[in-house]
Amino acid sequence: MKRFRWLPMPVHSVLLFVVWLLLNNTVAPGHLVLGAFLALTIPLLCAPLQTPQPIVHRPLLALRYMLLVLWDIVIANIEVAILVLGPMRKLQPAFVAVPLDIKSDLPQTVLASTVSLTPGTVSAELSEDGLWLYVHALHLTDEQALIETIKSRYEAPLKEIFAC
């Protein structure tokens, strides 16, 4: 879509205009003028605040990734329920440093969110250099297996989705 300098976000402008008219429940000339003014001014003021985001190069793979994460959430919920209902002294919580291959902010955020969404693991911190993701696991028996699972199951598809 071609962008004009005076209309940096045309879809947002149209939505702002329509929402303004719907909220006021009128098409009076004053509201049309004020709605048009707001629809043009707000995107102009917000445009410099935008940061470029990576493009999703493989949307079908992204859909497959979402289904995989949903499946993992269901399975992890069952596993965590079994762990929590059992004796607490058998739990072995631990922190793990996962080395990252992806460098962009959005894919790193998606990866950290995915790890946190999966019950039993929480993303604790991303290192300042962006090379390590620190993960807390509720019950950890094999550190290397957890690292390989995160890298192969989550990070590798994200690298393909965002082509990074």
From TrEMBL:
High-level lineage: Bacteria, Pseudomonadati, Pseudomonadota, Gammaproteobacteria, Oceanospirillales
Entry keyword Secreted: no
NCBIfam families: PRK08965.1-2
Subcellular location as annotated: Cell membrane
Protein name: Na+/H+ antiporter subunit E
Transmembrane helix among keywords: yes
UniProt record similarity statement: Belongs to the CPA3 antiporters (TC 2.A.63) subunit E family.
Topology of the protein relative to the lipid bilayer: Multi-pass membrane protein
Pfam family, one: MNHE
Keywords noted in UniProt: Cell membrane, Membrane, Transmembrane, Transmembrane helix
Origin: domain of life: Bacteria
Transmembrane segments: 65-85
